[in-house]
Every structure is written in C-alpha cells, then in structure tokens.
Amino acid sequence: MKSLYILSLFIVILIGCKSTKHSKVTTLKPDTEKQLAIPDQKTWYKKDFQKDNIPGISLDKWYAQNKKKPKNNNIIVAVIDTQIDLKHEDLQGVIWTNAKEIPDNGIDDDNNGYIDDCNGWSFTGTKSGGYVVWNRYEYVRIVNEWETLFKDKKETQIETKDLYKFKVYQRALKTFEEKNKYYKNWHKSLIHGVAIYPLVKDTLKHFFPKEDYTYQQLDSMYNKYKINNKKYRQRRDDNDKDLGALVFFMMSNLEVNQKTFDDVKDQEVQLDSVVNKNLNLAYNERLPIGDNPTVLEKGYGNNKISNTIKGVRTIQDHNTMVSGIIAANRSNAIGIKGIADVKIMPLNISPSGDEHDKDITMAIRYAVDNGARIINMSFGKEFSMHKDWVIDAFKYAQDHNVLLVHSSGNDSQNLDNFLNYPNDLNNDDTVEIYDNFINVGSTTQQLGDKFVSDFSNYGKQNVDLFAPGDEIYTTGAGNIYKFESGTSFAAPMVCGTAALIWSYYPKLTVKEVKQIILDSGTAYDINVIVPGTNDKKAPFSELSKTGKVLNVYNAMELAKKVSK
Question: What does residue 384 show for φ and ψ, rounded to 5 degrees?
C-alpha cells in the first residue's frame, strides 16, 4: 500500500460541461514581500488564499457564505482501504448502513452476494473470521506466477501476444532482486540492533543516569570517543562494541525516530514479515481467505470491517484517517469537521503489502452496486497483474455515474514516466480511456518553492490536480486525532468536494462533476522544487494536467452555473 501508512513502516506514495468554458479562474501570484499568516495548524487546509493568505481549499469560505440546505442528504462515499475504527467518536453517525440486510442472521437478505454486509465488506477477511495482515508485493506475485512462462527466455523467443506481459515480468524480476537484497540487508541490521541495544542503553546510562540525552549530545560524545569513521554496515558486520560505536548505534536509532527498545524490536518484527511474507515467493496470503485469486467472484472475505484480534497486528488507522477528512461528524462539537455530511462505506482490501487486483475490482463493483456515488482509493502499487479486471471495473463505475478518486502516490516520481496503479490508462498504459477518474497530488501550506510536497508524485499528463496532503489533522484509530502527511490525504479532499457538489446539484453527471473540480481549481504562478530533486525547479503549472489546486468555493460556484 503506497501511502504514508506503508511509508512510515519503511521509515525513510476535454470532455466537460458546456458552461465550463465560460468560467473564469483566477491565477494567484503571491506577494513574495508579504509575510505569510500563521495558520491554525489543525484547519489550515480549509482556508482561502485571498482571505487568509493560506493556500487551502477555501472550504471555510464556502460554508460561511452558503445558507441553503442540500437537495440530497444521501451521498455515499466508498473508502477502499484498510479496516476502520468504527468506535471512533467522530465517525459516529457517518458510517453507511445497509438497510436491506438484517444484522448477524447468517443470511444474504438483500441477495447481493455478501452475507450480513451491514456496513461494508472485508475482501481480506478470512474464513475463520480473522483478517490478512501481510500481502506479497505485486512484483513478487508476478515473478511467482509467470516464471514458468518466461524464465531464462529472451525477447526474440516470445510471441507477439505475450510481449507486453514478458516485459512486465522482466521489470518485476529486476525489482524483486533489488528489493529482496535491500530488505534482507536492512533486516540484518535490525537483528543486530535488537541484540546490541541493551548494551548500548546500559553504557549510555553511565553517562546519562536519567537517559535524557539528545542527539546533539550524543554527536559530541561520538566525536570525542570514536576510534574510526566506519559506516553503519561495517560496524555491524565487525560487531564493534567500542564506546564510539555504541554511541553511533544510538544516534542511528534516533535518526529514524526509534527512541526505545520496543521501537527497535517492533521495526525488526515488521521487517521480518517483509522479508518472509511480502517478499517470499512461496508465501500465499489467499490460503486463509479460501478464494481462487484467478477468478472474479462474489462472497469471499467476511463482514468484519473493524476487526481486532488479540496478538494480531491491527490495520485500522489509514481508513480511519481518510474517512475523517471526508466525513467526520460536523455537528457533534468535538474533534474535527469533515468536508461534507455524507455516509462512509468502508471496504477493506489493504493489508501491509500490495493490494490484489481482484480485491480492487470486486470492491469497486460492490461500491457501485450498493449505491456509492464516489470511491476514494488512497493506495497504489508499481505493478498490476490483472489490469484488465480493474479497468473493466472503472468502466462499470463510469457507466453508473460513479466518480473514482485516487492518490497519486508518495514516490516523488513523474507519473508520465513512472507506472503507478490503478490508473485510467488502457491495457498497455499508453492512452487515458475513462472520464470518471481523478488522480491527486499533494501540496503543503508553504506557498513558495516547497509548495509541492517533497514525497508527492506528479505528472503533466497523469496527475490531474493537487490538494493539501501535508500535515493534515484528522481522526486516527484508537479514538485519537493526529497530524499525518501523504497523497492519501489529498484524495479525500477531492472526494468530499464531489460529495458537496452532488449534495446540492444531484443531476450533474460524473463527467460534469470531474470537469467542474478540475476547471475550478486555483492556479498559482510560482516555481516549485520538483519532488525527488534537491533544488531543480519548475513552474507549478507544469506538474499536473490542470496546474491547479482544489478549490471548494470555486467548484460550488461553477457547479451552480453548470447546473443551470
């Protein structure tokens, strides 16, 4: 799952309305001499640049001026993601309920192919009532499945009809070999870190009885006691235990925010699973689910979308964060306010690792069949084994007037040259074929050269627009609130906006809603540092198809015009 959820694990993801051509979009050029206002950190993304000098989405401005009640209070947004914390105080009253299903009677009352799906469905639920925690990466599955077809073969030996698949296999094999080596080495370092940590801690306690040392103090100590300038890996392999080496090991932990032994041990446990599950050709995560991953079918998985099992790692945080941005209760006077008053349909497909194309496909179809108008997809991967299934599901959504919103990913890559799935391109990834898909990059609150989040993917052809995704305050699993960053949190901004548009103008088509969102964004006349580079700059307008940032106020004004 290419999102902050997985990124933190690895510490380091013109068809429009007739009226839109008459709309006027203001291009804002910030006054470089003017001091930026200090924003309310928890709500900065809702602010308006012209009023607050903060490059948000102008949500507060729209709510302050809007006095009308919506025409449709039944908009459903499906969030295809991890599990969700159904007990969170700020998500009470906003979770979709399947009124046609009688809870826990073991019968498929509405005959939709899913038994007791009262609030959604877990496509990664197991037959025993549990859930899958670890998925293999897609490139590992491709190597495992296609090895018998292509191993040790040259391109000249491949039939024309299999050439595209062969090239995907070659790329997957290269990626697997590189990642396998990288993560095994990292895991070796963590094993060493767990083994040596008690000695490091006891040694430092002699100098700092209260263990209140800072990184700067350790750095000074290291320069005083070091006997060489070895790199971490060499110290690890030599099992160095001199005072300088021990101080260096603790400094290395602090650099990646591992402040306690539990932090180091937890990271080692996670990397152990990465090596032995995510990257293991022989590991089969579908066995406990009991389905056939090569066949599209209804009914596999279970209805436990907020499952907690003692001793099993929970995976509820990411969906909880995304859903809060879209729909956290706006009237309970606690926590945060979501963008719109809508219902969230939680659909689980995202353990740690890469999502299965089968689960993506079936989740989209479930959402469409059960009334979702908008689908948030804050996940991504570098490979797709069954892309044809997914793009067929995209067409199914388009035919039913459903909008798909996808986070562009946190790889600091140009998606015009770097493949990221799912996308709305044809089977050989050359031509955009659907009009109901929006790909969203992330911006910060710093309206200058660091305006585009340094982790965000971008692309003049394959990223549609940007939205705030940096230091976003939202709901978290365990009934908490926190700041998080990632394109995962930019996509739900667009979903909430689409939900507002359809709440007030329900007769608009999905093509119209998409074009309204794209046409109404705010354009900023500035040069920004291109993600993935140190100081290379480009016009902000060149990093996405529209060159704009989501603007709720403008979108609602334009929707009003288009609806007439």
Answer: -145, 110
